[in-house]
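agent: user wants the structure for MMPL family transporter from Plantactinospora alkalitolerans. delegating to structure tool.
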Amino acid sequence: MGTWTEWVLRYRKTVVLFWLVLTALGGALAGRTVDALGFEFALPGQPGYEANREILQRFGTGGAYEPLVLTVTVPPDRSLREPQTRQEFSTMVERARAALPGARVLAYPGTDDPALLADGGRTTFALVYPRPVPGPEPYAQALPVLESVTAGATVAGAPAQVTGIAALETATGEGDRGVLVEVLLGAGGALVVLALVFASLLAGVPLLVATVSILTSFLCLLGLTTVTEVSFVVQYLVALIGLGVAIDYALLIVMRWREERAHGAENVDAVRAAMLTAGRSVVFSGVTVAVSLAALIVVPVPFMRGIGYGGLLIPLLSVAVATTLLPVLLARFGPRLEWPRRAPRDPRSARWARIATAMTRRPVLAATAATILLLAMAAPVLTLRLGAPAVGSYPTDDPAGRASATLADAGVPPGALRPVEVLSTDSGAVVQRLRDLPGVAAVLAPTGPGWQVADSTLVQVWTAGDPAGGAGVATIDRIRSAVDDIPGAQVGGRPVEDMDLVSALYDSAPIVLSVIVVLTLLLLARALRSVVLPIKALLLNVVSIGAAYGVTVLIWQHGWLTQVLFGMEPVGAIIAWVPIAVFAFLFGLSMDYELFILARMREEYDRHGSTNRAVVDGISYTGRLVTSASLILFLAFVALSTVPTVEVRILATALALGIAIDAVVVRSVLAPALVTLLDRANWWLPAPLAKLLRTAPEQRTEPEPVSTTHR
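agent: tool returned. relaying C-alpha cells verbatim.
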C-alpha cells in the first residue's frame, strides 16, 4: 500500500485526468446504459420456463404472462344465463377481442363451461391474453385499451370491470421516477450526516468520490450489457449501494487522515499514514464485498448472474477511486477543505469509549442479551414463504382490487387469475387426468381461436388454493406428475415458472454459501492475522442477517407496519430471489464494518498487548465512524425502498434492517463483548496458515494486564 500511495502521489495529474475522463463518459452515456438493461427473467433448462417459451412461440401470448380479467356481476334479480345478459356480455368480449388483435380469450359466451360462472350465475369473467410487449410492463399497451373498451359499458345495468395480476400490480405502482431521483434522495441524507461529521467543506469529498464511482460503474455496466443480460434492477443497486459504499470508504480514509493531522503529522505524511492503515482496510473490505457478490455468478439464473456482475462493480470501483483519487485530493487540497477552520477534534470518542468499557466489564450479560434479541428478531424466518404475492394480498381500494375482491367473494378460485397452462397434442387425455385431481378447481379445454395451433392445444387448469401458497404448490406438483407420461405434454404458466425459480436458486445455495464463506475467511485471516476473529465475524454476520430476514418477513409477509411504512398492503410472501441477493450484499457490507473495527482493535493490540484495552481503544476510534457510515448506507437503502418495484422495496427493506441491526446491536454490543470473552484466543494464527497467507503469526507471550481502565 505504501508503494501504491507513492505512485499515486507521483502521478497526480494522470490520476485526476483518468477519473475525469471516465466520469464524463459515464455521465454522458448513463441514459444509454439504462436503456440497455433488460427485463427478461430467463430460467434456461427449467421445465416450466421451457414450456412457457414454447407456448409463447406457438400462440403469441400466455405462458409466463398471466391474463387480464374482464368481469361483471349483474343485479340479484338477473342471471348471466339469460339470453339478453349473455348477449350483452358476449358483445363486450367481442369488442375487447377486436380492440386487441391476436389476443387469446376465454369467456363464458364462447365456452359454455360452468366454471366461468359464479355466485349462482350472477358473476362471469373472461380471461384475456393480449400479446405482450418488451419492457417492465408487458401489458402496458393492452391494459389501457381493455379499460377503454369497458369504460361506461354495462351488462344488465351493472358496470364491467378489469382486473388480473398485471392490473393489480399496475394499480399498486407509483410510476418510475428514474434512478436519478433515488440517488438524489440518498445523497441528500448522506450530505446531512457528512456535514455533521466534518462541519467543513470536507463533507463534499466523500460525495465527490461516490459520484466518480457511480458514473464510472454505469460506464462499465454499459460495456457489460454488450456481453451478457443485465437486469434493470442493477441500476438501482449500482447507484444507491454504490453511493453508500463509496462514501463509507472515503469516510474511513478521510477520518484517519484527520486523526493523523490531529496528532501533528504533516499533510502528505498524514495521507501516507491514512493509506497504510485505513486504505489497507478499505482494500480488504472492498474485496470481501466483491467476493460475496461474485458468488451470485455461480447461480444458474441469468438474472442473478447479472446482479452479481453488476454488483461486483460497486466495491471494486469504489476501492479504486478511494485509493487513487482520494489521496491526491487530500494531498493537494486537504487542509483548505477544513474550512471553516476549527481546532482539531479528538479522533477518539469518549462516549464510545464508555460504551466499550461497559461491554468489557460485563461481557457475559451483554453477549447474552444481544444474542436473545437477535434470535427473537430472527424467529419469524421459520414462517418464510418464498414466491409471488398471493392473489388476495393486493390492495382493494382501487378498481382492479375491488374487482378481484368481488370475484373472490363470488367463489372464483384464485387459480383463475394465475392459471396453469398445459400444452399437449391430446387435450382429452389431459382433461381426463386432471379433472378429479385433489386441489384442482377447474379444467377447461377451449376450442376457439387462439387455443389450438396445428396439433397443439392448450388446457387451462385452475388451482383451488392460491398458486403461490402451500396448497397451490402441492396441487401444481400433482398436476405435473399426473401428465408426466402423456406424450408431448408440457406444464407451463407463471406459477409453474415461479416454482422452478425457487428450485434453480436454492438448489445451488450451498455452493454460493460455501464460496462466500471460504474466501471471506481467508481474506479476513490475512487482514486480521487471526483465525478466531474471522470465524467470530462470520457467525455474527449470519445471526445479524437472520434477524434482518425475520423482521422483513414480519413487515412484507405478515403485514406488520407495511401500510404505515410503505402505504401498501403486505404481499404475503418474500419474492424468491430476494433472500439470496440480500445475503450476498449484506454479508459483504456488514463485514465492512466488522473489518473496520477489528482492524483497529488489532492495531491497538499490537501496540500494547491488552485485549480489553484494544476493545476500548478500537471502539473509541471507530465507533463514531461506523455509526456515521452505517447511517449513510441506511439512508441509501431507505431511498432504494422508494423504488416502485415491489421486489426492490423488499430487498431494500432487508438491507436497511440488516445495516441498522448490525450497527446498533452487533458491532456496538455483541462484537466487543465476544472479543473480550475470547481474550488472547482472538489473536491466534497457526504458523502453517500464517505461511500460506504470507503473514506473521502472533508471537506475544507476556501476560496481559487484567485492568479494563482506558489508557
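agent: one observation worth passing along. The first strand starts at residue 68 and ends at 73.
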